From TrEMBL:
This is FNDC9 protein. Keywords: Membrane, Transmembrane, Transmembrane helix. It comes from Neopipo cinnamomea. PANTHER family: FIBRONECTIN TYPE III DOMAIN-CONTAINING PROTEIN 9, FIBRONECTIN TYPE-III DOMAIN-CONTAINING PROTEIN. The keyword Transmembrane applies. The chain crosses the membrane at residues 110-136.
């Protein structure tokens, strides 16, 4: 077929072949294998490592992902059959292209950077969620403690108020009893002084030591 290999680099090579009118198949088979030796002299299709298929409308193809500084054999046939010696060429790849190596390093560094960034974002999100959860929990606990303290203070204040009221009532009752024992009629007189309107109605003294005497006269005397 008179194939030629051009634009050889460290990992790519372009193979060119003339179009054949006698090729009735719908594709060309491009087969290649590294480290050519006598074991592949039979040109068996099974001996080739890789195979590419391109439409018959094309007459060239760029093979990629080759290994630098490696001897390759490449064959092109117009049908799915074993190639012959005139359909194959042997070539050597060059050293790795510095620009390609630099691009590979850049891509590797970019991939590492992206992976690290994603991991850092995930860790930051986990830490932020943990901090927010802890803050909400502490705030909830403080609110509960404040509510409990408020309820306790309210209960203590209410207990003190009730105790104070009971004590005050007992003290007043004791004072009234003492006053009644010392001055049997003094309570009614003090009540009348505090409430002058009560003088309009006759009030009888309930003292056992004195007779019942209307208090109206006393009111008039007071007025």
């Amino acid at each position: 077929m008179g194939i030629t290999i051009q634009n050889i680099t460290g990992n790519t090579a372009m193979v060119i072949w003339p179009k054949m009118a006698s090729c009735v198949d719908s594709f060309y088979s491009i087969m290649y294998h590294p480290n050519w030796n006598n074991m592949l002299s039979s040109y068996s299709r099974k001996s080739f490592q890789k195979e590419e298929r391109v439409p018959t409308t094309r007459s060239s193809f760029v093979v990629e992902n080759l290994t630098p500084l490696t001897t390759y054999i490449m064959c092109v046939t117009c049908q799915s059959a074993n190639p012959s010696s005139d359909q194959c060429r042997v070539f050597n790849t060059l050293e790795r292209d510095p620009a390609s190596a630099s691009n590979t390093k850049k891509e590797l560094a970019l991939g590492i950077w992206l992976t690290s960034s994603v991991l850092l974002l995930i860790i930051a999100a986990i830490l932020l969620y943990g901090c927010l959860h802890l803050l909400c929990r502490r705030r909830h606990e403080r609110l509960q403690e404040r509510n409990r303290t408020s309820k306790q203070d309210h209960g203590e204040a209410r207990t003190k108020s009730v105790a104070y009221t009971s004590e005050e009532l007992s003290r007043q009752r004791q004072q009234m009893q003492d006053t009644e024992e010392k001055h049997p009629g003094g309570i009614q007189l003090a009540t009348i002084i505090k409430n002058p309107s009560a003088c309009n109605q006759p009030v009888m003294s309930t003292s056992k030591s004195r007779e019942r005497v209307p208090v109206t006269a006393q009111c008039s005397a007071i007025n």
